Amino acid sequence: NWRLSSFALQYTDLKNVSVSVANVTSFPILSCNFSVRRDLPSVNSAPQWLADPYMVRASTTVIPADAPESYHFIGVLNSTFIDSTGSVPVESYQAPYGQSMRRYTASAIQAQGMMRTDVTGCTFTNLNVGVATSGGAYSTVNSSAFSEMDYGVFTRDDQPRICKSTFLNVEYPATVYNAQRAYHNDNIFANARICFRIENSAMQAFRNNEFSDYWKGIVVNTAVAALTPLRESEPPYEMEMYGRNRFDVPDPQTYVNAPYTHPNPFMRRVDIGLYNADVAAMTDLGADAAGGLFLVRCGMNRFGALTTSHVAYLEPEPLAIDFSINNCRPFAMVRSLNVGAYGAPLNIEAIADEMCGPMLDENQCSDQVWRDGRNEIPNGETFKRRIDRNSSSTGPIERAYNIALSRSMITDLPSTLRSAIADVRTSDEIFITGLLGNTTEVTIGTYAVEIRRNGSVHQHLLLLVTP
Prior knowledge:
This protein is mostly beta strands. It has 4 helices and 36 strands. A hairpin with a 5-residue loop joins β31 and β32.
């Protein structure tokens, strides 16, 4: 009975302790420190953290008709997860294709069947899996750091969003299976085997990500990866801009005589033949099977100067990908394998680097209006202008604010907004919309608020409703 039970965990250190939450309303886990040691004594001849490897496990298997949104929600904020035994060095990379070396046994967060999973501001170190979600609706990983791991984020059968996170020395930073359409913005991937793997999924869009030192950057199989501007006719989707991703690897020939010294642990080899085979297959964009597609036209992406291919398919594919308006370094020529490529890449290095760098020009880009996150636009920053297909600004320049209110305060929202924002009048109309675009009853969650004055839009807000 969800009315008689709830779960909360805040400001707590947990050593060699796991937490399981099932079929219960919950508040976000806040500012907790989880640590384990994989060298603990075995239990029933099995390592303790191999039998139940996740430090936090949340699931929903029974859904009462009258359960609140918090019943379907698990949030983990500003918390740390670590195997304090330390990291496992990689002297020579040894793993079958597409599989992990499995250097670690303990994992951090698993969410199954949740309507929403929100991981924000967390740190993950020396683990097998950082965040694993399945069978849910929305999974957000935001402003988090992953280092020395087998898998960073692993999602299946949901809608993942990975933004403003850093992955360092993670074998497979992000892997999504059977995912709904989603976006992944402003991340850093450094020293990886495959930075982002997409399997049997709807289109995944990428904006302003940095890929550094990898074997393969983005891999798609029966899926679509979009590294190009996307616009739709309905707000707030028409404001979205994608592309401007950056790909770089060190010169692989530097290590050909001593591949075990490679700075990327997942490129190290003792056998020079295996290293040369890795180099031959190195690519920014890759596909292993039929049905993989990349959209890059006009994306202003900066592709690697030293990767063997800018785009490579494992088997010949009768496709032709338009690379127009991208910086295909170093000679403005697309290097492709088993797939056609055409178009007019940018061919002036200085201009191309400036155009393909981080997005600072507000007419071309500014912070994305996330549809299910929290603190998406810092207070006082300019709300993103509406951009038409010619990249010119249309519509007013507005200010955006984040407001968090308890559910009890929603009964008199106009008065509450007037007390929080001076420029709200009694005569203003207020519209509250779910961030997926459907007008909804206001329960616990995140909403878009539109304030109209004299028939036109005057203000946009992001409203977080708390218990």
